[in-house]
Structure formats: structure tokens, C-alpha cells
Amino acid sequence: MRTIRCPICKHMYKYDGLPPSSCPDCAKKTDADYQAVREYVRQNRGVRLEEVARHFNIPHSQVMQYLKEDRLEIHTQSQWFLKCELCGVNIMSGTRCHSCGRR
Fold it and tell me: Which residues pair with 2 in a beta bridge?
């Protein structure tokens, strides 16, 4: 194992090469944040991305990352969508639409 600096808190830790690539303390906090965000989105269908970020005091980019990782999904009644990286069609989570994902 090599020692690296956590990109979040900047402390050094022993990295085993497996995800997550942050120290155990930050990984635990990130997972707790995700669980709270997921529950909030489930209970508040159609909530806007900005509202989620503001409610939890987390960066907008963190909520986007949850969506791109397919950990969250935009509700069908939402006014905004992600775009497929290949064809540009609207998608609710991930990085590719179903058609492009099959190719």
C-alpha cells in the first residue's frame, strides 16, 4: 500500500488502490451524505438539484456525481434532465441513454 493525500480533507492515508479514493473518514462522511440525499429525494419527488445541494450544504457537483454514477435518478416530473454523453437525448441518471448503453 502506498500513502497518498486525501483529495477532500488533505490528510495522508494508506491507499489500497480500491474505491473510494479518499480517506476512510471522508469516505464514511460521503456515504452518509449520499444516504441522506437519497432519502430526501425519495421523499420529495421532483425536488430541484439546487434545492438538494442547498438543503445539505454540499456542492452542486456532488449531487451531479450521484446522478452520473446512477446512484440517484431524476424524477419523471422534473423540469431538467441529464444528457446522454453520446447522442444528447435526455436521461434521468447515468451518463448514457439505454440505446447508447447497449452499443
Answer: 15
Do residues 41 and 72 lie in contact, with contact meaning Cβ atoms separated by under 8 Å? yes
Q: Give residue-wise pLDDT tens across range 30-60.
A: 889 899 999 998 898 878 888 899 999 988 8
In a domain, 13, yes or no: no
Report the number of distinct structural domains present in the chain. Answer: 1
Domain region containing 45: 24-102
Cα separation, 29 vs 64, in Å, equals 17
Q: Which three cell numbers stand for residue 72?
A: 440517484
| Side-chain half-sphere CA neighbours of 4 within 13 A | 14
pLDDT given at position 78: 65
pLDDT for the residue numbered 80: 65
